[in-house]
Specification:
The complex is a heterodimer of chains A (178) and B (238).
Chain A (H helix, E strand, L loop, with lengths): L4 H10 L15 H12 L6 E3 L3 H8 L5 H22 L1 H29 L5 H23 L6 H10 L4 E5 L2 E4 L1
Parallel strand pairs in A: 1-3
Antiparallel strand pairs in A: 2-3
Helix pairs in contact in A: 1-5, 1-6, 2-7, 4-5, 4-6, 5-6, 6-7
Chain B lengths: L9 H4 L4 H32 L3 H27 L27 H20 L7 H28 L3 H14 L13 H8 L7 H18 L14
Helix pairs in contact in B: 2-3, 3-5, 4-5, 4-6, 4-8
The chains are: A mainly alpha (178), B mainly alpha (238).
Chain lengths: 178, 238
Amino acid sequence: MTVDLDAVRAIASAMRARPWFSRLGVPLGEDERALARAAAAGYHVVGIEVVADLPAAKALALEPAGAPAADADAVEARVLRDRAVAAAGEQRVLGDLSSIVDAALEPTIAAARDALAAAGIVSDEYARVLAGAAALAAYHAALAKACGMPDHPFVAIDALFARGRWPLGPHAGRFAVL
Amino acid sequence: MSAALEVKTAADLAQQPQEYQDAVRKIIVSHAINELYGAQVFDEPAVAYAPTPYWKWLTCRVAMEEYGHHVRFFNLGVDLGVPSEKMIPARDGKRPLSIFETPLTSWEEFCVIKLLGDMAEILQVEDLLHCTYVPLRNAGRATMPEERFHAKFGEDSVGELVQTPEGKAKVQAAIDAIWPTLPAFFGSSKSKNNEIFRKWGIKQRTNEEMRADYVERAQALVAKFGLTLPELPADVLA
């Protein structure tokens, strides 16, 4: 297998310029619906749940029912990482993946604080939740792309973040997006 | 000697006595390694134990921040010519601190690590805030707000867990298991390194003073939740 580390580096270098969380609450465009459907397919759910606002998203994220899907994502990410490491070596792969974490640290938290402030919410904790979700999605998408899987649901989820959305994952048989 | 000393750059440090240079490198290496150990041994595995997506994403972010602290100290070390492999756990050839040798097994343990382990980290970073090597002082100042948040995360999460008798019992069990490994984080009371750190104004307090302060703060903190710290063997406090 060939590992596409250029794709990983491309995601890292795009982190700062992304309009993180800038379209929360705006009606979904057709391209966003297509991405949400692609993401939904990864969880074997159909349909899209449009989440109203940040307080509703928080309530949804606090439901324990969402944990198994997130855990399954972590397992899938580990499989992809092991595959990439086996093909390209630990140092190269983990080095480039670390660059995503480095690049995501500042812009995601700054944008999360702005989005929350715009909604009248001041919470360091909630800002970190948004920032953590965004960075994790970028990391997952980088793994999928590195492994030559551009149609992987991880890539669709990250693309929604890149458009200023917050894809929350499967919820009650549909894929939830703010 | 240290009262008037203030070294502003890596280039200026190179003009200082070798003992001071070595001490600065040593403490930077220690912070770089411990921050990364913390992220790898506790924060990353904790994501799987977090009970909801909300707490998973928050834990993810905390892991990123701990990693960011490692990078901050790592870069300071690089500026001083420290080989990178000396600042990466398991490649530095040394045994980790005892707290890093126990694998994480539950969400309650992670919350206790944040509550008590990150408080130990805060004390260590606080001691750098008046460090004579200015880049290290600045790294400490930049790190402090996030460390405080991590400790608050511990307080908030433990505060939620103790709302039920079952949760409270699990937290107390986690404290009983983890607490004995924590005071060693401050090093030996007879540490030669600490003596040199204080001689050069890199650190301000003895290991013994810091440990005593830590134990006192930890006792007050757990008492807030109706929890207790187990007795420690005398050798742990030496």
